[in-house]
Write a structure and sequence with these properties.
6-stranded parallel sheet, 15 strands, pyruvate-formate lyase- activating enzyme, 442 residues, alpha/beta
């Protein structure tokens, strides 16, 4: 029997992405690589991956024709909110050209806004952790059964959108297969700013125990933290280095040192095995210690990223950050002493932000003087607490493509929860970059 063809798609990044696009940075499609690997290993499916970050297109029709050239029975697309309008347009064009294709969507946008995810052209939506739900859905459809028993599923039942109950998270992440790197051209994934040559990404865990009001991690992972074992992480690192020949890695964990002992163990194993790698991590400032910083540096960490968000203590409390300005100062100072590069990120337009608090944030960024600073405009994603605030204020149109596309952090304001105008938020973002660049140009 021929295996059913499943095409996994990463939609194009139509977001305005600050300096990142100008620098030619392309990240790998780790989420769909994990999904494809699971479906292929645990089921009887022929999987193909299409990445519209690396594929030249000029229209929605181009996208649909490229997808259909793989002769899919199923098309699976993961999406963030700003990319969702492009996903809908592509899905509708695919269905116009080949009505027999089944289109399944998932990702943070679908999880955060399930009631409005099933636009025309989209057959099913998967919310939350996707691997087991997607495989069960495919098996169910292949067997000719109805989808009513598939947990984590959104579908039409004749009277409207039906949202099934949620399944438990995968208990043991060590049992999950490594990403399907063979389905893509690894040379496409480059970051000339931080790495020489190609780079890949790795999740050593899923979820975050914290609950910042602006963060979309809680949408999918519900504040549940699950970590892979040190040995399992090292197995994947060795595979990437020794089999794939890639030396550059980005840990995409929400916070790498949620378990400090395990973080130290991974660093020490990299050192002990003398693996010649360069990698990046995201870490909370309150997780740092001199010992961890030295282990990161000595094991090849190219930089550690910390989310500072605001230079105003009350705003930090309001957004649930559970960190203080003094902790940020201590962390950045310690990293500088150890010569471990640091990237700090800030959010302009947080709830309650005023001209004064935004200026405090800009001044704090100059004080910390990270090796690189990123200034983003608040983007309230569906499912976050800031999105809930915006909904209560009547600022959300859950079906507006224009509003979705403007949730992109740079040069636009989709939903304003601050006390300054949209124009001023964009002006402050430009000014923050200008001030920071001027200091670093000296």
């Amino acid at each position: 029997m021929n295996s059913a063809k499943v095409v996994f798609v990463r939609p194009p990044n139509l977001q305005k992405s600050g300096q990142w696009k100008k620098q030619g940075v392309i990240r790998c499609p780790l989420n769909i690589a994990l999904l494809a690997s699971f479906v292929r290993e645990r089921g009887d499916y022929d999987c193909v991956l299409v990445d519209f970050e690396t594929t030249q297109i000029s229209s929605v029709t181009d996208m649909a024709e490229i997808v259909l050239a793989a002769c899919p029975k199923y098309v699976c697309i993961t999406t963030l909110t700003p990319r969702f309008p492009a996903v809908v347009r592509m899905a509708q064009e695919v269905k116009r050209l080949d009505p027999a294709v089944t289109i399944i969507v998932g990702g943070p946008h679908v999880t955060g806004s399930p009631q409005t995810a099933l636009f025309d052209g989209i057959s099913y939506g998967i919310i939350g952790e996707g691997e087991e739900a997607l495989l069960e859905l495919l098996d169910t459809l292949e067997a000719g059964r109805g989808p009513s028993s598939v947990e984590n599923l959104i579908y039409r039942d004749g009277t409207g959108t039906k949202i099934n109950g949620m399944r438990p998270f995968v208990k043991n992440l060590d049992e999950m297969p490594f990403p399907a790197w063979d389905l893509m051209n690894l040379d496409d994934y480059v970051d000339p700013v931080y790495f020489k040559g190609r780079h890949l990404a790795i999740f050593s865990g899923r979820g975050c125990p914290y609950d910042c009001t602006f963060c979309a991690s809680r949408v999918t992972w519900r504040r549940k933290l699950r970590l892979r074992s040190t040995e399992n992480v090292m197995d994947e690192i060795r595979h990437i280095v020794n089999v794939l020949g890639v030396q550059n890695l980005m840990f995409w964990d929400d916070t790498f040192a949620a378990d400090k002992k395990r973080a130290m163990a991974i660093c020490n194993r990299i050192i002990e095995e003398d693996l010649d790698i360069s990698y990046t991590v995201q870490i909370r400032a309150d997780a740092f210690s001199d010992e961890l910083i030295e282990a990161l540096r000595d094991s090849g960490c190219a930089f550690a990223a910390i989310g500072v968000e605001s230079g105003n203590e009350q705003i930090l409390k309001n957004i649930g950050k559970r960190e203080t300005k003094e902790q940020f100062r201590d962390a950045v100072s310690a990293m500088k002493r150890a010569n471990l590069p640091v990237i700090a990120s800030y959010i302009i337009g947080l709830p309650g932000d005023t001209h004064e608090t935004i200026k405090e944030t800009m001044e704090f960024a100059l004080e910390l003087d990270a090796d690189q600073s990123k200034f983003m405009i608040l983007a309230p994603y569906p499912g976050t607490r800031v999105y809930d605030i915006a909904t209560r204020k009547g600022l959300v149109d859950p079906t507006s493509f224009e509003q979705m596309e403007d949730l992109n952090y740079y040069d636009s304001v989709a939903i304003n929860l601050s006390e300054v105008s949209n124009e001023d938020l964009i002006r402050y973002q430009d000014q923050a970059y200008e001030q920071y660049d001027a200091v670093h140009a000296k």
